[in-house]
Design brief:
Layout (H helix, E strand, L loop, with lengths): L12 H14 L8 H9 L3 E8 L3 E8 L2 H13 L3 H8 L3 E3 L14 H6 L4 E9 L2 E10 L7 H21 L16 H14 L3 H14 L4 H9 L7
Antiparallel strand pairs: 1-2, 1-5, 3-4, 4-5
Helix pairs in contact: 1-2, 1-6, 2-6, 7-8, 7-9, 8-9
């Protein structure tokens, strides 16, 4: 299903009003806080997360997540560089895997097994954009297999649209949003990627890929390897 350049035709004024009212109830001060909570409530799924992205499918990090499982999904996507949010952003379309335990089209070979062990069965990525500006993706998960119902799909499109507008109006760059409770922008990873980019004379996306590979090979987190790079205990050359 193609992404939109303006409000999706399936999103009614009534549904938008319902979402905006709920956001005000959760966060009267406005801004991105509450977006993930309201997304999970409105779409009626087990949990939700929002990953912000930049060009070349470079993840900035997680804006929010509703629970420990959602946080795990966001962290693994950032660490491994694969998953529904990254595919939704890259391909500019809705991405769905209705049964991670028995996928009809196997993908995300490193991501799937730990998520299944955590109780995740269905995952869905909805791209977030305003006009030509792409911001990231809304990630939803279910603790049981099966597709979203039509009304859930339409509500997810509405939430992705609202989330994109809210994030853009709040400032789309990570530093403007790092103070948000629950946000995890892995700042040490971005700092390390910048250092590796200079050391190897490669793009930031390539530097992050090298960083991920080192973490994966050492069976540790990308944040741990990044901390060693920043502390100059590890050098890529």
């Amino acid at each position: 299903m193609a992404c939109w350049r303006r409000r999706p035709e399936t999103v009614s004024d009534e549904r938008l009003l319902h979402i905006l009212r709920r956001l005000v109830e959760v966060n009267p001060r406005g801004g991105p806080a509450g977006l993930c909570q309201v997304s999970a409530e409105v779409v009626e799924v087990s949990g939700a997360g929002i990953m912000l992205m930049s060009s070349d499918t470079y993840p900035r990090g997680s804006l929010c997540s509703t629970d420990t499982v959602s946080a795990l999904i966001e962290t693994l996507q950032f660490t491994l560089g694969e998953g529904p949010c990254i595919d939704a952003y890259r391909d500019d379309r809705v991405v769905a895997e209705v049964d991670l335990a028995a996928p009809s089209n196997p993908r995300w070979m490193a991501l799937g097994p730990p998520l299944v062990r955590a109780g995740v069965r269905g995952v869905f990525g909805f791209p977030m954009r305003v006009g030509a500006i792409r911001l990231g993706a809304l990630n939803l998960y279910m603790d049981r297999p099966g597709p979203l119902r039509d009304e859930q799909h339409f509500d997810a499109l509405a939430m992705a649209y609202v989330a994109a507008r809210v994030v853009l109006s709040s400032g789309p760059s990570a530093p403007d949003l790092t103070g948000l409770p629950g946000a995890d922008f892995h700042l040490v990873v971005h700092q390390a990627a910048g250092m590796i980019s200079v050391q190897l004379d490669v793009s930031l996306a390539e530097a992050l890929a090298r960083l991920r590979a080192r973490a994966f090979g050492a069976d540790t987190t990308v944040d741990a390897v990044a901390a060693d790079v920043v502390a100059r205990r590890i050098r890529f050359d």
